[in-house]
Amino acid sequence: MDEVKQLVSDIKNKNLKPIYFLMGEEPYYIDKISDFIENSVLAEEERGFNQMILYGRDVSVDDIVSNAKRYPMMAEHQVVIVKEAQELSRTIEKLAPYAENPQTTTVLVVNYKYKKIDKRKALYKTLKKTGVVYESKKLYENQVADWIRRVLSPKNYSISPKAAQMLVEFLGTDLSKINNELEKLQIILPEGTQITPEHIEENIGISKDFNNFELRKAIGEKNVIKAHRIVNYFAENPKDNPIVVTVSLLFSFFSQLLHFHGLKDKSPRSVASALKVNPYFVNDYITAAKHYPMRKVSHVVSTLRTFDVKSKGVGANAVSQGDLLKELLVRILSN
Predict the structure, then answer these.
(1) pLDDT tens figures, 273-328
(2) Angle 223-212-191 (CA atoms, 0-180°, nearest 5)?
(3) How far apart are CA 25 and CA 73, in angstroms?
C-alpha cells in the first residue's frame, strides 16, 4: 500500500516513467494504478488523440510497440494502456527490446493480472532499469481486516473488529469486492461513523448472528445450542453459506488453536503476534483452549480434513451439505 502511495505521488508530481508494468495475483491495485494514470496524466482535451486502450486478446506485442513508438499530438505525452496483457504471456518477452530504449514521450501501462513475468529473464531486468515494475501480491486472510481499516481511515471512517471479520469471512480476500461494499457503506453512512456488524447486516445482507465467525465462537465456547442453531440456518441457506468455506475457516481456527497450545508466552499481545490475529479475538482462543486440550484439537483437525474431502463430493455424494455440516458439528462437540 505504501508503494502504491509513492507511485501515485510520483505520477501526480509528473515524475513519469516510460513504462509501468503492473503484475501479480491481486488485481485491485493494478486497476487502481492503471485507472489513475488513465485519468490524470493527460488533460481531458488531450486524450482524444493521445490516449489509447488496447486489450491483450486483440493485439500482439508488435502492435503494442508500434503504438508506443508514436509521437503525441499537441501534448507532452501520449498514454498507451494495455489491459488483460496476461493474454500475451507466451510472447511478452518480445517487449524487452522496446523496454531497453522506450519512447520518452510515451507512458506505456501494461496490466498483467494474476501472473508474473520471469524475473530471471531480460524483460524484467530491463524494466527495472528503465521503468516501473509493480507486483501486486495477494493478501493473506489475516491481513485483510487491517487493510480494511487502512482504507477507511483516510476517509474518516472506522470499523469494529467483528464487522471487519464478517466482511473477510463473507467476501474472502477479494479486495475489489470488499472495496465495493465499503464504498456502498460510505454513501449510506455519515462521515465519522464506526461501521458495526449491524451496519453490515442491514446494508450488505450478512447476518450478524448467523455467520462463520459466530459459529466458530460458539464451537470454541462449546455453546451447543447456539452452534446447532447456526448450523441449521446454514443448512437452510446452503448457497449463502457453502460448507467448503465453513470447513476451511474452522480448520484455520483449530490449526491456530493447536499453535496456541504450543506457545510458552500466552499473554494477549504475544498470542496476537504469534497467531497473526487482532488482539480483539485473543480471548476466543483462550476460551477454546480450555474446552479443547491439545489432544482433542489434534483430533478435530483430523476430522476437519476428512470432512473437507467429503464437502468436495468425495465419498459423500448422497449426503446433503446441510446433513454433512450437522454431522461435522456433532463430531467436533463430542470431543
Answers:
(1) 999 888 888 999 999 999 999 999 999 999 999 988 888 877 666 778 888 999 99
(2) 115
(3) 36
